[in-house]
Structure prediction request, 427 residues.
Amino acid sequence: MGLKMGMIPVKKALEAILDQVQRMGTEKMDLLHSLGRVLAEPVASVRDHPPWNSSAMDGYAVCHGELSQASEQRSVLLEVIEEIAAGVLPQKAIQPGQASRIMTGAPVPEGADAVIRVEDTRTEGNRVRVIQPVEAGENVRLRGEDIQSGNVVLEQNSVIGPAEVGLLASVGRSHVLVYQRPRVAILATGNELADLGEALGPNKIMNSNGYAVAAQVIEAGGVPVLLGVAKDTREELSDRLAQGLSADLILISGGVSVGEYDFVKDVLDELGATMAFWKVAMKPGEPLAFGMLKTKPAFGLPGNPVSTMVTFEQFVRPALRKMQGHALLFRPVIEAVLMERITKKTGKTHFLRAVVKKTADRYEVWTTGSQSSGVLTSMVKANGLLIFPSESGEIEKGRTVQVQLLGKNLSDKTFTGYLAKRDCRVL
Prediction:
């Protein structure tokens, strides 16, 4: 079955979007607030780490040659000449027959080449009896073992996680240069929508799309700017979209179909938008628009709640991640065994809300039942989107399919309990 007029495949739509969106500028952030951001500079160390040979244990700094044959029967008695705490430099060098009490992280004194654990010794006044042998370098962290001065510890475009924060702190960086987070203007459209705090009349439904998309923007690393709800008039749509031009990317929910009151296309034309496409061969989410409004990427998302969220996952999220400098733009996709038979018409790629469960040797996947684009509860139940290729009309139970993970725990008891209760349906 061929594509409908003006409708393009998912892959081509994604390519058109990623060709247009550009990486954001940079800003300097304090270390803790840089978590999750992408480095816009390489970071090098200005010193060795550790900056000296240091002890990996609480014990005694010793010369290993005197202790190579030490045992309970052939113990070695050493004079303890000082105690070295972490953060304190040694004052005395180790001579034959001597040892220094040393704490974890403290510098190893000159003349010592090993640290014997406290557990392998017995204290006798100002002396220590060693009852186990020790090898050269044992329990000693060598200077520069982790980081050497001048070495790049994090490359540009690295994503800053907790370990990276610790590494940056270890090389003394209190601030780092990162790519900016895009500000995303979000406009919901429709005479039928009431916003939070408004009276809900018999002819109204709540504006769930605006808030769901705002949450998706935050989860993708962006900063949502809620423009509220625009009524289905050219004037109000135009005014609200003009406000959105101060953001870095614009999202419009609803009004991009072909209904009598769907004015988004007309208003974008009037504002001089250059649109790449208006429809994508997918379900849910066929009425999806993308183009440039002035210099800002603009998306027209479908009005149905699930369609809005699914199209965001496929197209807006990768765009936002590219803008922030991420190299990995997409959700992970795994292979899973389909636990029910599913069917559809050919010609569109379907993204089915699904529940993935990890077993001992494989992933298994079920749909969440009804795939109506108005059933938002199905997105709550789903931890993945089962990808049903456009050219396929049927997939039998037991076949291997691709599933795009949505970041929820695959072993969550909520999903396991749901699977135990439901009767799997055929799409």
In short: Helices lie at 10-20, 162-170, 208-219, 234-244, 264-270, 305-323, 377-381, 413-421. DSSP finds eight helices and 30 strands in the chain.
